[in-house]
Design a protein that fits this description.
Elements: H1 7-27, H2 42-65, H3 75-95, H4 97-111, H5 117-138
Length: 152
């Protein structure tokens, strides 16, 4: 049986489709009532356009460079990560960013094969914590907060 797509191409195709869907959803929004103020979807459109362009470029490069394609070895891990990502996106609105991001980070690191508990705990707290500091305090763009405390 010939393998057509590698795991990397499948992930890039998924990212491309998700970014394309999100980009398309911003096109119908109208913000005429804001007057001369920049539309709130202006910056997300730029980022989504960059994501779509980069994933398309990398996917084409990967398809052209592969002489022998390897089959997807870890379907379970890939499916588990997709389900965890969907649960994380849903939990952010209910539990806040930090409370949702720490368990998601632990699970994602475990799925991707990181087994050192010290590394898992350090990254699971440092990465979401630095994002909270960046967005809430530096950029003044508040992330969703927890219903338990206003601090995170």
């Amino acid at each position: 049986m010939q393998v057509i797509f590698s795991e990397r191409v499948l992930v890039l195709l998924t990212v491309l489709m998700a970014a394309g869907g999100l980009f398309a959803s911003t096109l119908g929004a109208e913000y005429r009532l804001l007057g001369a103020v920049q539309s709130p979807v202006f910056f997300p459109r730029i980022i989504l356009g960059l994501i779509m362009g980069l994933s398309l470029i990398v996917m084409v490069q990967d398809l052209m460079a592969q002489n022998t394609r390897q089959a997807v070895e870890k379907w379970g891990a890939l499916i588990a990560f997709v389900i965890a990502s969907l649960l994380f996106a849903n939990a952010i609105t209910r539990l806040g960013f930090m409370v949702s991001a720490v368990p998601f980070s632990v699970l994602a690191l475990w799925i991707f094969g990181i087994r050192n508990p010290l590394v898992i705990v350090a990254y699971a707290i440092a990465v979401p914590g630095s994002l909270v500091l960046l967005f809430n305090h530096v950029l003044k763009l508040p992330l969703p907060t927890s219903p338990f405390t206003y601090l995170f």
